[in-house]
Design goal:
globular; 6-stranded mixed beta sheet; single chain; about 180 residues; mainly beta
Length: about 180
């Protein structure tokens, strides 16, 4: 079994079983996680690769929940995971990212405000609409929402979502997004 498959299998087992690892890895850059306030030396970097995203999921201190619509505790990021009629994705209310390359074909907006999975791959969206709907549950920092082959991890630094079937995903927070895959 390849290392990537072994890691994917272990993440899948962790996500499905809800097994929790309570130690966060130190990273060279990033923000202090809210849930590690009693341990200010613990820092988490933004995942910029699929493997780094898997490490975030492996080290998530929370629980796995089956949620279709969720909002992070800050209220700024909202996600729809396997909601009928919508692609799985997350959007940010404040802090959309100016990206002239991603928004070149959009005459209305030059800001990426949502990342969605299309064909299994994470795609930035220069949206002028919203996927928000009332009644979304708050996903505590450190908890994972999983539905089908998609999982999203809520952290104080932002949200990381992965497609477990395609080894693809994204990270989103105020002023920045990252899309990645294992290839």
């Amino acid at each position: 079994m390849s290392l990537r498959r072994a890691v994917l299998a272990s993440v899948f087992v962790l996500v499905v079983a809800g097994i929790v690892v309570a130690v966060a890895p130190a990273g060279p850059a990033g923000a202090v996680r809210a849930e590690t306030a009693s341990h200010p030396a613990v820092r988490v970097s933004i995942p910029r690769t699929y493997d780094a995203a898997l490490a975030h999921f492996r080290n998530a201190p929370g629980v796995v929940r089956k949620l279709k619509r969720l909002v992070l505790p800050s209220g700024n990021i909202y996600c729809a995971v396997k909601v009928s009629g919508l692609p799985t994705g997350c959007e940010i209310s404040e802090g959309a990212i100016k990206d002239l390359d991603a928004c070149a074909d959009n005459p209305v907006s030059k800001y990426v405000g949502r990342i969605e999975f299309h064909g299994g791959h994470a795609v930035p969206v220069c949206n002028t609409d919203t996927i928000r709907a009332p009644g979304a549950q708050t996903l505590k920092y450190g908890d994972i929402a999983r539905k089908g082959g998609f999982a999203c991890l809520s952290e104080a630094i932002g949200v990381t979502c992965i497609n477990l079937n395609e080894a693809d995903g994204f990270f989103l927070h105020r002023g920045e997004y990252v899309t990645f895959n294992a290839g």
